[in-house]
Design brief:
Blueprint lengths: L2 E5 L7 H9 L3 E5 L10 E4 L5 H8 L3 H9 L4 E4 L1 H4 L4 E2 L12 E5 L8 E6 L1 E2 L14 E6 L1 E5 L5 E6 L3 E8 L2 E4 L7 H15 L2
Parallel strand pairs: 1-2, 1-3, 3-4, 4-13, 5-6
Antiparallel strand pairs: 6-10, 7-9, 8-11, 11-12, 12-13
Length: 201
């Protein structure tokens, strides 16, 4: 059984993610610090909250997080969790974790914000997370921002919301989804299972 940790930065609402991981065979702990992660095979940053408070809660653990990435421990960032991988966000003034180059920008105000609901995936490149996921599969989004990576090669799938929104990123041990796989039914379950498979390697 794979043992993974969900980092709780105080936003709550992580029950559905914990439940989804457990349904796919993982043992899950919810943690509030990153200084004792050697017991885990992976780390998950959940997707609820605002950028600055979430980054602030990670501030004392930022060096530990960088070390986790250097050790090649798989990390899955969901929505806000993925956005925190980058250098900065228009949502706040704090610096991001900076493990990926790029920024997070607000969706254009000509669209309804937040973008909330089901959208299909357009798969662009081979992806470990999307193994077995069909082109055009539908997943569930709740977000007002999108990532703008410096290296677009890390974007493995997009979703069309009048503009192209990076939906899945992968870079080394870092995996990210702008949508919520834990709320995306069977398709999301495939991705959770794929992530847990990477944790076993």
């Amino acid at each position: 059984m794979v043992k993974v940790a969900i980092f709780d930065y105080g936003a709550g609402n992580i029950f559905s993610l914990k439940s989804s991981l457990e349904k796919n065979g993982a043992e899950v702990d919810v943690i509030t610090g990153l200084n004792h992660t050697n017991n885990y095979s992976a780390l998950l940053l959940p997707g609820v909250g605002n950028f600055d408070p979430a980054i602030s809660s990670l501030a004392s653990s930022k060096r530990a997080f960088v070390d986790i990435v250097k050790k090649q421990m798989p990390v899955l960032g969901i929505c806000l969790g993925m956005e925190m991988f980058f250098e900065k966000s228009e949502e706040g003034k704090a610096s991001g974790l900076g493990v990926l180059e790029g920024e997070v920008i607000l969706l254009p105000n000509k669209f309804k914000i937040p973008h909330m609901g089901w959208n299909d995936l357009q798969i662009k490149r081979p992806s470990k997370l999307l193994d077995g996921v069909k082109e055009g599969s539908w997943v569930y989004f709740v977000h007002s921002y999108r990532v703008k990576p410096k290296n677009m090669e890390i974007v493995k799938a997009d979703s069309d919301y009048g503009i192209s929104v990076p939906a899945v990123i992968e870079s080394g041990p870092l995996f990210g989804t702008q949508f919520h796989p834990e709320k995306s039914g069977k398709v999301g379950s495939i991705m959770i299972n794929n992530f847990l498979r990477e944790c076993k390697k």
